[in-house]
Amino acid sequence: MPVRPDDLDPAHSLLCGDDGTVLARLILRHDAAEAVRPAAGVPVGKVADQVRRDLAGLTLETSDDGLVAALGLPLSRAATELRHDLAELPAPVALPDGWSLAEGGWDDDLASALAAAYAPGHPDGGWTENDTGQVRAMFDKGDPVPPLSPASARLVGPDGRSAGHVLCAGPVPWTDYRCAWVLNLGVGPQAQGRGFGWALLVHALRGSHAAGLPALALAVTDGNPARRLYDRAGFQPVARVLTVPLPTG
Question: Which end of the chain is least crowded, N or C, by CB within 10 Å?
Answer without folding.
Answer: C
